[in-house]
């Protein structure tokens, strides 16, 4: 017979041995630029800068659509720099986060937002032949030839 207050069930096992802390498999310092993830972040910064410059150099005929494109480009640019800085300065080793999963989530979210921005920029570019003012006597297009070429480059 068991003593009073005792249970026949053994105590639950300690979960610590079964769930080890996440390891950082991505390198710190300048070695991050030699990995696929580092190269993608560097390209996101480079092409984000190009999109930012190209969209800002047009007259922005449709502010709602191209405003979102600029928001995505600028936000992704700043977040890419911050994410890259975490690895360059070694903060990834100090913060207990699964950095492999964070890397996957970051690139996935950035892809979704950039794809949406691409669709909006392409939609703006496709409307280049419509007149800017429908009731005006002059037929000024939404995008002139130079802005049309810039919008194509920003879409790509």
TrEMBL record:
<dbReference type="InterPro" id="IPR050578">
    <property type="entry name" value="MARVEL-CKLF_proteins"/>
</dbReference>
<feature type="transmembrane region" description="Helical">
    <location>
        <begin position="104"/>
        <end position="123"/>
    </location>
</feature>
<protein>
    <submittedName>
        <fullName>MAL2 protein</fullName>
    </submittedName>
</protein>
<dbReference type="InterPro" id="IPR013295">
    <property type="entry name" value="MAL"/>
</dbReference>
<feature type="domain" description="MARVEL">
    <location>
        <begin position="32"/>
        <end position="156"/>
    </location>
</feature>
<keyword id="KW-0812">Transmembrane</keyword>
<feature type="transmembrane region" description="Helical">
    <location>
        <begin position="68"/>
        <end position="92"/>
    </location>
</feature>
<feature type="transmembrane region" description="Helical">
    <location>
        <begin position="36"/>
        <end position="56"/>
    </location>
</feature>
<dbReference type="GO" id="GO:0019911">
    <property type="term" value="F:structural constituent of myelin sheath"/>
</dbReference>
<dbReference type="GO" id="GO:0042552">
    <property type="term" value="P:myelination"/>
</dbReference>
<keyword id="KW-0472">Membrane</keyword>
<dbReference type="InterPro" id="IPR008253">
    <property type="entry name" value="Marvel"/>
</dbReference>
<keyword id="KW-1133">Transmembrane helix</keyword>
<dbReference type="GO" id="GO:0016020">
    <property type="term" value="C:membrane"/>
</dbReference>
<dbReference type="Pfam" id="PF01284">
    <property type="entry name" value="MARVEL"/>
</dbReference>
């Amino acid at each position: 017979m068991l003593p009073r207050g005792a249970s026949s069930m053994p105590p639950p096992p300690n979960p610590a041995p079964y769930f080890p802390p996440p390891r950082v498999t991505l390198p710190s310092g300048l070695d991050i630029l030699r990995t696929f993830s580092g190269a993608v972040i560097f390209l996101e910064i480079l092409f984000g800068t190009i999109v930012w410059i190209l969209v800002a150099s047009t007259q922005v005929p449709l502010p709602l659509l191209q405003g979102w494109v600029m928001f995505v480009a600028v936000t992704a640019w700043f977040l890419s720099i911050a994410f890259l800085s975490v690895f360059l300065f070694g903060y990834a080793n100090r913060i207990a986060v699964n950095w492999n999963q964070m890397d996957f989530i970051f690139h996935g979210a950035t892809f979704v937002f950039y794809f949406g921005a691409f669709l909006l920029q392409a939609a703006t570019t496709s409307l280049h032949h419509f007149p800017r003012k429908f009731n005006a006597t002059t037929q000024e297009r939404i995008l002139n030839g130079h802005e049309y070429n810039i919008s194509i480059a920003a879409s790509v």
